[in-house]
Every structure is written in structure tokens, then in C-alpha cells.
Specification:
Blueprint: H1 2-7, H2 14-22, H3 33-47, H4 57-64, H5 77-90, H6 95-99, H7 102-113, H8 115-122, H9 150-157, H10 162-178, H11 186-201, H12 205-208, E1 236-246, E2 254-259, E3 267-271, H13 279-282, E4 286-290, E5 296-298, E6 301-303, E7 306-307, E8 309-311, E9 320-322, E10 334-337, H14 357-361, E11 365-367, E12 373-376, E13 383-388, E14 391-392, E15 402-403
Antiparallel strand pairs: 1-2, 1-4, 1-10, 2-3, 4-7, 5-6, 8-9, 8-15, 10-13, 11-12, 12-13, 13-14
Helix pairs in contact: 2-5, 2-8, 3-5, 4-7, 5-7
Domain TRNA-binding: 230-336
Protein name: Nucleic acid-binding protein
InterPro entries: Arc1-like_N, Glutathione-S-Trfase_C-like, Glutathione-S-Trfase_C_sf, NA-bd_OB-fold, tRNA-bd_dom, Tyrosine-tRNA_ligase_regulator
Amino acid sequence: MAAQASIAKLHSPLKELLTGALTDITAAFGRTEKDQVEVAEWVENVASGTVGRPEDLKDLDTQLVPRTYLVSNYLTAADVAVYGALHPVFSQLQSAQYYSHPALTRYFDHIQSRPAVRKAAEGLAPAFSLVTFDLESTPKVERKADAPKEKKKTAKLTTETPAESSKVLGKEIKKAVAAEPTPGVEGAQAGKAQKKEKKEKKPAAANEGGKKDAGGKKAAAEPEGNGEPVPSMIDLRVGRIVDIKVHPDADGLYVEQIDFGEESGPRTVVSGLVKYIPIEQLRDKFLVGVCNLKPANMRGVKSFAMVLCATHPDGKEAGIEVVQPPPKSKVGDRVFFEGSEYENATPLSQLNPKKKIFETIQPGFTTLETKEAAWVNPVTKTVHRIRSTEGVCVAPSFVGASLS
């Protein structure tokens, strides 16, 4: 294998670090042929000395902005080799220097903390000693507010003749009152938002349990979700399939009745699992449901939730399985993300499809080497396991799976 041949070219103690760590890493050289080629390329680059040079840190930082690992979404020999090549540089950096490479710093700290890497590194001390970072003092990125939209309209109006300007201005004012209240008319804006929200909620109220949560308590007023998408906006709950059949008009879809512990009774849910999971395995199945997506028509049947599933790293054809809530779970149990900023937050009553909140968060959903379901923050790379008060949710068989 190309990657193994490249390891032989590494200098000591990096070669020993890689050799020691690989014994504890699943699929260290890649799970697919494509991944194997990429792993080999990274190890070869480390062996040739083209990784770890101070002048290349900026480019590497850019590459790592959207990634947890160098290859796919799991730890490989490529990560261990690059970590070892970066160690002499990072062990000498001052805070101002590693603050300027946030993605690379986050990546380095994550890799050095992986159990397999740490175990191998400790056996080679002090060559790969733990590098500590003052991440709490990282300067915050200042975000500039968007320029008010009405300025563009004013500029356009001033190019008209007085008569034309008067007509256009009258039209713009009517549009603003009817659809887009100007900043500062907060009372009118809030009133329209509430009316719109009531209209959107009304059709789904009967099937979604009204305004009561899983425990039967009246829910507090929900935020509108205008801020940056965060995972705690997603309403995850434990459910149980109480009835299931194949969709009458679509052979690839199941129509399930799922009990989420709501007074209104089970929800109708449509899922595309026919080709992947036999119906017998889903009867009376406990699962985790995404309960605040906007209801959607699926070939004539309206679906009021989504079953959270894990897809094998090699794709759907390699397998899909239902994410399992912890043992002793009860229908309606709240499922949340670990972390003080998420655990006690209230989910939105309904995700606005236009804001693409779920789509923004979903790429960070994965399963760890322990098969535990988690969300990995794409910026900080902190890991937040998905759990209830009974324990952590898992995918029974998959490591590095995508959740959706």
C-alpha cells in the first residue's frame, strides 16, 4: 500500500509515532479507494518535507476551515503524520501566532487529543509533548452589519423627476407597509410576524400536539430563529413506531405512525427506508425524531417529522440504520446536544425552511469511533454528543457516519 511505503520514508521519531498510533485507529489508511489515495498523498508530502513549513501554514489553515480531518470524516494516518510534522512548529508558537491560524490550531489540538495519538505520543516523550493553547482568550471576530436596504431605494428615487419620484415613493411606502416594514416600526413588524406564524402553525397543530411539549406542559414563547443557526434550535425527541406500512403510491417509502408522547396522538411520518431497512425491523422501533421541520407532502401523504438515521461513510448503498435512543428511554423524552450553551435551550416551534437552519447544522452530524451520535462544531471543532437524560444516542454499527 502506498501510504505504508511512505511511512518507511519518515524520519524518527515521527515514524515511531505513526507506527504506534495506527494500531489503535480503525481504517487508518482509508475506507475507500479514493480515501486511500488521499491518505497516501498526505503521508508522502510529510515524508518529503513539504508539510509543516511556517510559510505554508496559512494555506493549510484555509484547507482545514470546513474539515475535522484531512481525509473524509474520520481519523487516518494522514492526520497523525501531519500532526507530527506540525508539532515542532506549534510547540514554539506564541498566542498571537496561533490565533492567526484558528482552523489549523483547532485541528492540531483535536488530533493531539485523540486517544490513539496521545497514547503513542506519550511513549515517545518529550518529542511529542502535549501543546497547550489559551483558546479562551481568542479574539472575537467582529462582524459588520449589513447596510440598511432602504438606502438603495432612496438613491434610486432621487434619479427620477419630482412627479415620477412622488408616484414611485407612494408605491414604495405601500409595499413597505404591506410586506416589509421599515426598521424602527417594530410594533407593526412584530404584529405581522405573529400573524404569519399563526397561519403557518395552524395546519400542523392537530398532528403536532398543539402548543404543549412532550411532557404535557405549555411551551414558552419560541424565538423566531433570526440569529446564527445553532443545533439547539432543532427539536429532537424519542419516539416509537406504533404502525408502519408501505406508501400506497411509492414503493420506496414507508408511512409510519410514530408516538412522540403527545396528547394529540401519533404523528404521520414518511421515510425513504424501504430499500435499506426491512419493515419487520422497524415495527415497534424506538428512534429519535426531528419534530419541528415544516410538514411536507410526500407523494400525497403529509409528513410531520423525520426519522434521524445514520448513513454509512461509503454512502447509502453501504447501509442506513436508525439512530437509537439510550436504553430505558420513554416516548417523548427530550434529546439534546451536550454543552452548557445547548442543553437547556428551547428548540424553535418550527424551523423556517427559508433560513435553512437544519441544512446548516446537519453537515456537522456524525458518529464517533464509539458509534455515539454527535454534532461537531465546524468552527471550533468541539464535539457535542446527542443524548437524553438516560444516556447518549448511538448508531449500532457505523463509525464516521453522516446523520440526517
